[in-house]
């Protein structure tokens, strides 16, 4: 039910959410509830639920890689002095919204305890760094 998905609506620009980047594959916007100095989300325009739906194939690898590049260029432009950047995805069942989204952080986390939400919990799920995901789905 794509019509019920908030992120699909954002990608179609049918909400008031300001978009920081748009192209035919992805859009980017600020997290509604920012957890860091800068906290952006990059999402695919077409509905993909979670990282579990990404396969080891060129199409998916290119998409994820493009999401990461868009996130990086936005943060490097908007927070050039940040000491640390982090990029990653929730892994089910820890995803908050069921539309694939890359979290892009220019640290520090604000407030500091927020980092627990984005810790990698290994095989239990949690959070996967974008580079790790790319390695996993590289064809
Ligand atoms: Zn969606
Ligand atoms: Zn999330």
Mind explaining what this structure looks like?
Keywords: Hydrolase, Nucleotide-binding. It comes from Kingdonia uniflora. InterPro entries: Histidine_triad_HIT, HIT-like, HIT-like_sf. GO terms for molecular function: adenylylsulfatase activity; nucleotide binding. This protein is an alpha+beta fold and 139 residues long. The chain has one domain: HIT-like (HIT family, subunit A), CATH 3.30.428. Helices cover 25% and strands 27% of the residues. It has three helices and six strands, in the order H-E-E-E-H-E-E-E-H. A six-stranded antiparallel β-sheet has the order 1-2-3-5-4-6. Helix 2 runs antiparallel to helix 3. The longest helix has 21 residues. The chain is globular. The model has no long low-confidence stretch (mean pLDDT 90). The structure holds zinc ion (2 copies). The site of one zinc ion (ZN) has 5 residues, from loops.
């Amino acid at each position: 039910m794509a019509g019920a998905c908030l992120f699909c609506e954002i990608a179609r620009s049918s909400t008031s959410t300001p978009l920081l980047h748009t192209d035919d594959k992805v859009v980017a916007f600020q997290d509604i509830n920012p957890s860091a100095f800068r906290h952006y989300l990059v999402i695919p325009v077409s509905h993909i639920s979670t990282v579990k739906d990404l396969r080891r194939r060129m199409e998916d690898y290119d998409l994820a890689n493009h999401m990461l590049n868009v996130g990086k260029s936005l943060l490097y432009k908007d927070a050039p002095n940040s000491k640390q950047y982090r990029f990653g995805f929730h892994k089910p069942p820890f995803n908050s919204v069921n539309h694939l989204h890359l979290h892009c952080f220019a640290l520090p986390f604000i407030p500091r305890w927020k980092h627990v939400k984005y810790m990698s919990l290994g095989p239990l799920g949690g959070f996967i760094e974008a580079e790790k995901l790319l390695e996993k789905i590289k064809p």
